[in-house]
Amino acid sequence: MWQLYQFPLCPFSRKVRLLLGEKGVAYDLIRESPWQMRDEFLDLNPAGTTPVMVDEDTNATLIDSQAICEYFEETVERFPLISGTAAGRAEIRRLVAFFDQSFYGDIVAPLLHERMKKRLVERAPPDARILREAMKRANTHMDYMDYLLDHRSWMAGGTMSLADIAAAAHVSVADYLGGIDWSSHEPVKRWYAGFKSRPSFRPLLSERMEVIAPPAHYEKPDF
Amino acid sequence: MWQLYQFPLCPFSRKVRLLLGEKGVAYDLIRESPWQMRDEFLDLNPAGTTPVMVDEDTNATLIDSQAICEYFEETVERFPLISGTAAGRAEIRRLVAFFDQSFYGDIVAPLLHERMKKRLVERAPPDARILREAMKRANTHMDYMDYLLDHRSWMAGGTMSLADIAAAAHVSVADYLGGIDWSSHEPVKRWYAGFKSRPSFRPLLSERMEVIAPPAHYEKPDF
Ligand SMILES: N[C@@H](CCC(=O)N[C@@H](CS)C(=O)NCC(=O)O)C(=O)O
Ligand SMILES: N[C@@H](CCC(=O)N[C@@H](CS)C(=O)NCC(=O)O)C(=O)O
User: Fold this and answer.
1) Ligand 2 centre and the CA of B35: distance in Å?
2) Fewer CB in 10 Å around end: N or C, chain A?
3) Rounded to 5 degrees, what are φ and ψ at A33?
4) Is ligand 2 within 6 A of the CB of residue B180?
5) B223 has a pLDDT exceeding 90
6) CA of A152 to the centre of ligand 2 (A)
7) Cα separation, B17 vs B69, whole angstroms
8) Chain B: nearest CA to A44, how far in angstroms?
9) CB A70 to CB B47 under 8 A?
């Protein structure tokens, strides 16, 4: 059985969990708080980041969400998520990198730092200016996602792909942390409502991070 | 013919160029300075990052160095660089992500900011403290690379892979910017000396960024 080292608000772990859910791969969750920099965890992953997956039976270790997703895409045929022509696959990977780097760096990382890590580690309140700026950037990103969904059924084209999964993972963490204003993004809202109803997404939405509660609409498919 | 948008000290563009060189794919260079945020470039890549590749004949556009490398790995058989078992490929991708994210974020990005962008954009001198910290972190990273090369012929295992190419790309930019102390890293030094002699690497090493000259040893295979 695979073990997944993660914490409930790690967007990269959510991306992996959504892919494993769609592909029907079973795994156990192991709670890991990377900011604690546990020696045993650093021995497992010198980069010190979640997610990490370990196969209990063989001790095989997988590190980095994209390396993990590519691994299961190569080894589990069910529900291909990086499929199509080489150019189509490049477009999926471009968008995954865009969400994992730009959306995460501009929005999710500052929200996690201000609203979660500061409370857990420094016991300090969030900086309202940084929260406001992250929410402003979320708006710009959502405009781009609206634009994509105005031209395509899914983020990267005609079928659901890892680009949708990466986007949903990051959006869901930003939404938990109160960073998303849903009032003027109909296309993304419709797309995300559909995602929220998927069986692979339900367990993620019901989990909580102890120190911070999500807004009332967070778990509702109709919001 | 493919066109590659880049500037001489972009490590992600170097990674792509090394892969294209080993695979024998021809391309033209187009100079792009992403910090200028040209409208035409942002239309091409909303993320505003180099490298970007455009096929002049078909207008196909490839964005993000990893998506570009996976594309050419899938479409050009010569010199496979993400090969082996699924677990071996996961190890290659883990290390590529490690160099592209940790080595870049800890070392190359601050060096580029202090020694190149500050001079070009703000006409300000570098902050000596930030340079010193980046060099200290370079030392830690090189210790880890020494450790890998003590156990393996190449970064990710028995054969040269994209992990070596990503590492060489980032090390070369850090070295150009004076960030590497070669005195106590024999395994990495030997590995890098071999890399420097490869025909795919020679053109990169002879290019210069106008505002800043590399140290005397930079281009020498024997340093
Ligand atoms: N490229 C990595 C990034 C993972 C990552 O940044 N995870 C965060 C948690 S959301 C982390 O572990 N941060 C701790 C740290 O950077 O020290 C992946 O895709 O797995
Ligand atoms: N994930 C991207 C990262 C590329 C990247 O960060 N490029 C830098 C130049 S070395 C850049 O364009 N920075 C400009 C910016 O971030 O605005 C890739 O692998 O291509």
Assistant:
1) 10
2) N
3) -110, 95
4) no
5) no
6) 26
7) 9
8) 13
9) no
Sheet holding B61-63, edge to edge: B27-31, B2-6, B52-55, B61-63
Q: Residues of A with CB below 8 A from B19's CB?
A: none
How far is ligand 2, taken at its centre, from the CA of residue B51, in Å? 7
Could you tell me which chain B residue has the CA closest to the CA of A90?
B67
Q: What angle do CA B73, A4, A213 make, to 5 degrees?
A: 115
Strand pairing report for B52-55 and B2-6: antiparallel
Between chains, do A89 and B102 touch, taking CB under 8 Å as contact? no
**B156 to A69, B16, B85, B190: CA distances (angstroms):** 18, 18, 12, 16
B90 vs A71: CB contact, 8 Å cut-off? yes
The CATH homologous superfamily of the domain defined by B2-75: Glutaredoxin (3.40.30.10)
Q: How far is the CA of A49 from the centre of ligand 1 (A)?
A: 4
Beta carbon of A97 within 6 Å of any ligand 2 atom: yes
Write the CA distances from B149 to B82, B135, B195, integer angstroms.
18, 21, 14
Scanning every residue of chain A, which has its alpha carbon at the shortest distance from the alpha carbon of B59? A87
Using the structure block, give the residue that is written with the tokens 């772990």.
A13
Global confidence as pTM: 0.98
Predicted local distance difference test score (pLDDT) of residue A10: 98
Instruction: Give the residue-averaged pLDDT of B92-105.
Output: 98
Give ranges for CATH 1.20.1050.10 in chain B: 86-206
pLDDT for the residue B221: 86
Domain with CATH 3.40.30.10 in chain A: 2-75
| DSSP SS3 for B209 | strand
- CA nearest neighbour of B202 among B172, B177, B179, B166: B172
Domain range A86-206, its CATH number among 1.20.1050.10, 3.60.40.10, 3.40.640.10, 3.30.420.40: 1.20.1050.10
Tokens of A63: 């590190």
- Closest Cα to residue A202, out of A163, A164, A166, A168? A168
- Please, what is the average pLDDT of chain B? 97
Instruction: Give the residue-averaged pLDDT of B67-78.
Output: 98
Closest-approaching ligand to the CA atom of A12: 1
Q: Which ligand places an atom closest to the C-alpha of B4?
A: 2
